[in-house]
């Protein structure tokens, strides 16, 4: 397969029709419209084989996940996804690999009506860079810097499943819980509807991609506050409880990566409304702690002792 056959294949399948795309794949740049009154929210993420995913990960999973991690960033801003670009670096141009990658991509892109409008294709060690673009009404994006002392800290879904999924892959574990955890690792659900629903009520928001304490630490730092969270309140999936002992699970919940849940803060008076909106969006949320004036993230352990969290989230250069 040649470079242009490859691009043609991608183009033929991914250019979902949208009224705001004047020109998609095929020219030197795409031409897109931003509706009146909306800001364009833009993010980009690179996934490198052997760093962000095990080398043997199926192309179908990579297609889904490379888009999902970006839609998760847009969700954390409260933005509605619209377009994406895809820069692919491939060791070989394999038609089957591309077909499977696009299958996985489309399964998610169609759910959110995201049009692929351009990209770049090069040869080299496998690496996938996706940029996603979305809309958010002017001045209404959820940022990291709005948390206030006394706010409730909440998270969506369950935590620790991504780290468990990686453990499953690395140790080639099989079974029902193990395969569910693998799906959580490879096919994360970006919380797009929840992000939109929390706009105007959450004071700050971040997606949990590098580990809860690290990401909550970023939110706190940006807001000039700290947080105290209770280990016993971190939402655990049945599969995670089934898969591993509780102390290991709690460790993964605090510092494992790849969960792609939303962590947000909300004034206590607005918490019932936030819960109602989350329920309407079909996503469980739960309160895990409170924002405090003292900088840093603290964790109340199962034995009641409050200790500073070791914010050892993923750092590429550590
Ligand atoms: P240029 O040399 O002008 O950058 P390319 O030959 O790289 O153009 O790409 C031709 C067209 O195909 C462009 O519109 C580009 O956005 C698109 N494209 C290239 N690679 C990809 C890809 N992996 N996914 C989606 N679109 C792509
Ligand atoms: Mg190019």
TrEMBL record:
Mg(2+) 2 binds at residues 45, 73. This is Thiamine-monophosphate kinase. It comes from Tahibacter amnicola. Mg(2+) 3 binds at residues 28, 73, 207. Belongs to the thiamine-monophosphate kinase family. InterPro entries: PurM-like_C_dom, PurM-like_C_sf, PurM-like_N, PurM-like_N_sf, ThiL-like. SUPFAM superfamilies: PurM C-terminal domain-like, PurM N-terminal domain-like. It is an enzyme of class 2 (transferase). Pathway: Cofactor biosynthesis; thiamine diphosphate biosynthesis; thiamine diphosphate from thiamine phosphate: step 1/1. The keyword Chaperone does not apply.
